[in-house]
# Entry
Amino acid sequence: MTAHPADVVSTASYGAAADPYDAAGLSATARALYERGWMPGTSGNVSVRSGVDAVLITASGLGKGRLTSADTVLVRADTGAPVRPGSPRPSAETCIHLAVYRAFPTVGAVVHAHPPYATALASRRSRAGGGPVRFTDLELIKGMGRSYLDSIEIPLFANWREVPRIAAEVGEHFAHPATDPAPALLITHHGATTWGADLAEASDRLECLEALCQLALLIGD
Ligand SMILES: CSCCC(=O)C(=O)COP(=O)(O)O
Ligand SMILES: [Zn+2]
# Structure
């Protein structure tokens, strides 16, 4: 991942508790997803696990195409509160990331974006009565952490105005996960969230999910 010129300066402000390469990785991922049109304006957020009790996440409300390492915040994994006083405000959707980390201890990175096909398919499914979005037979299913070609169900959540309510429903859902749960969720009229061992895997899964959603819309019912 190529460092943004601003990262060379801003990573120096990070202490030992957050790896400066993680901060550079977060901001580079956000910029790349912005370039793809999946994080328009200030939308989207990215995080990585930082040790056992903290998460490094993008700051809230900033243009994701201009993000630098300085625009990341180390938060407590239990409460989402910034570890250091004077940090920028963490993403408004931090609680959703934390719900994923709590449910899946091996997850190292979470990516949330507003990609158009995933958002459209989630919204269409919601209008048709809701329930998980299921993909069948498509080869790209293997890109979602599956070694076999079968079907995969992506849970769909309501886009409550109170983000903690979305996070609570995500936490409840994954408290009793299906066997081999998909590393992804959709939020109706909002976007998609994927996760993986690291930023590369979480981003690849977002790419596959968006492609699956595009194909599903092309194929139709
Ligand atoms: C303009 S998008 C509204 C908020 C949102 O859905 C999002 O993904 C970005 O929130 P953040 O607080 O992480 O900037
Ligand atoms: Zn969002």
